Amino acid sequence: MKTVWVLGDQLNRRIGALRRETPDSAGVLLVESTAAIGSRPYHRQRLHLVITAMRRFAGDLRRAGFEVDYRKAPSLTAGLAAHRDELAPDEVIATEPNSRSAASLLDSLEVTQVESNQFLCHRNEFADWAGPRKRLRMEDFYRWQRRRLGYLMDGDEPEGGAWNYDHDNREPPPPGGGQWVAPPQSRLDDLDSAVLAELPADLPGADPVGWWATSRRGALARLRQFVDSVLPQFGPYEDAMTVTNWHLAHSMLSPYLNLGLLLPDEVCDAVEQAYREGRVPINSAEGMIRQVIGWREFVWGIYWLWPEQYDANELGNDRAVPPAWIGAADTSMRCVAEALTGVEERGWLHHIQRLMVLANFANLYGIEPARVRDWMRERFVDGADWVMGPNVMGMGMWADGGRMSTKPYVSGGAYINRMSDYCGDCRFDPKQRTGPDACPFTTLYWDFLDRHRSRLAANARMARQYSTLDRLQDVAELRQRAAAVIAEVAAGRL
């Protein structure tokens, strides 16, 4: 009998090689690699989520009648070799992996690969779409996806007459921080405890307290709760940040999509159904579907299309990750402190905290992009390799020189002040760029433009910023203050 080898981010019977198999046609192999677990300082909750979900999925398959070989092994290679030696399957097949390194490994091990359906746009389809285009724009891809998949369409036109509702979805947090429905919280059981007891003691991050479901059943329950109780508020406040609440109206479904516990079509189907039934406004439904079939699948396609992007460094950033980011110091920047607390406690932040707080600061400060990419891969529960490559190197750090985003996503303290309530009690003033009370974001923003003038001044989308920079009378003082900020951050004193 043949064996279906299920990798740790393909935990669903509907995915690829497993979807047409029955207990009578195939056995199943899952390998828990100690080398992979110990290869990086992964967040405790990330490893707990992946390992526990793998073990629960193995149990689900056994209850469905499958013969499951669940192995702990020094490596994936060793696990497969032991399986072949002991069970001698006629053939080993697997779903196409979600990373280039895993794909290369399976090629070398002569494992037959079945086309993946874990994304709604296969990477070959994305390459065909991209082929004739001089520039790849997510908005163009998103509209193409909407048309071919049929989500929120009225014939050939978009439902509601508009392709996106960004203008309705940029509200700052409401006064007082707002009222938000809390995500479900699972009770940890004996399996959770067993996995936690096996993890290395020196991993970063707090122990889990039940925010992350580790089974398909739990993931489906979180999808239902999000659509029924949270999604109506998602649209207007998807870019907001507040000290009073860490989750706001975000779905928190990305870990389940990345592990296969949920599939993108069932998420989008549930969102569209809620809209059609009048339970969700168009801007919230469209905003969520755009995140799933637009941005998420655009990033997936870029990862496979541009492997060279993964190690790019157009701006020549060369600094290390600051001490505060690895728990070796505190920071008095309120927005950064809030973000790092979220990473420590939950291994998760919503997209604006990742992009406009952490990645923005990393670029202004000058952290080497690969270090930011790896830090986010390690610290986030949804930090898949294919996610962090394009999101960090292309969008967050502009390391690819504008191939993915026409201009760097950088800003001073004004943006954070507008979209959050962080600045009110912060010791720094977002309106000041020099002096001891100047917001480090504001100081470093103008210094960033000054330092990278040769690369960015000709960019048409940066013309207004450089026009403003040219009118500043305190550039020399600004440079001195920026140098002091950088030194203080590097020393763990800011």
Short description:
This protein is mainly α and 494 residues long. It has 3 domains: 2-114, HUPs (Rossmann fold), CATH 3.40.50; 123-198 and 214-305, Serine Threonine Protein Phosphatase 5, Tetratricopeptide repeat, CATH 1.25.40; 323-490, Orthogonal Bundle (DNA Cyclobutane Dipyrimidine Photolyase, subunit A, domain 3), CATH 1.10.579.
SSE diagram, text form:
Blueprint: E1 2-5, E2 26-33, H1 34-38, H2 44-63, E3 68-73, H3 76-87, E4 92-95, H4 100-108, E5 112-114, H5 123-130, H6 138-149, E6 153-154, E7 157-158, H7 190-198, H8 216-234, H9 254-259, H10 264-276, H11 282-305, H12 334-346, H13 351-365, H14 369-379, H15 385-396, H16 413-419, H17 440-451, H18 453-456, H19 463-471, H20 475-490
Parallel strand pairs: 1-2, 1-4, 2-3, 4-5
Antiparallel strand pairs: 6-7
